[in-house]
Amino acid sequence: MRIISGTFRSRILEAPKGDRTRPTSDRARETLFNILATIADLEDAAVLDLFAGSGAFAFEAISRGASSATCVDSSAEAIAAVKLNASKLGVSPTSFRLDVYKWLETAAGEYDIIFADPPYDDPKLPEILIKSIFGSRLLMDDSIVIIEHRTGSKLVIPSDISVVRDRSAGEAQFTFLQRRGRETENSHLSGDI
Known about the structure:
This protein is of the alpha/beta class. The protein is 26% helix and 30% strand. The protein is built from 5 helices and 8 strands. It has helices at 26-39, 56-63, 76-89, 100-106, 128-134; strands at residues 46-50, 68-73, 94-97, 108-116, 137-150, 161-169, 172-179, 190-192. It has an 8-stranded mixed beta sheet, sandwiched between helices. It is globular, with a radius of gyration of 15 Å.
């Protein structure tokens, strides 16, 4: 697993020990960031990486100009990997070893971009995760939320939330969401890569 672009391009990231995490492939992450570049500005952005695993999303965002990153994961191995990768890169994202859903209930802050990569078999993924994120105190009016889920699986999108983009890359599908009325131009674009 490596950083695709930016200041830390080609630097290798350590994955958490064990088999509790499913790292997003380099190809899929490249697809995600190519799409993100068309709808959001990463320069000086505050990003949140939920179910962070190695923190690959956070570190890729920092490499591309994000000013801050927060990583949340319930796994001790994942948070250890985040801290190891941060040390190797010389950056210092904030990290929390907590259940993501419990963290969302009490956390506060303002994030431009929120990425969530829960286990594909997480029973809360189809409906509860999106409601938890959009019901939290973490979003600004124009924040972008990205949910990674298994290609072909369905999410339940509340009526006050718009799908800005929906793209698959191999096994991973990325659904880009925003509060209704804040959609980016060309939000009708979707498809497979």
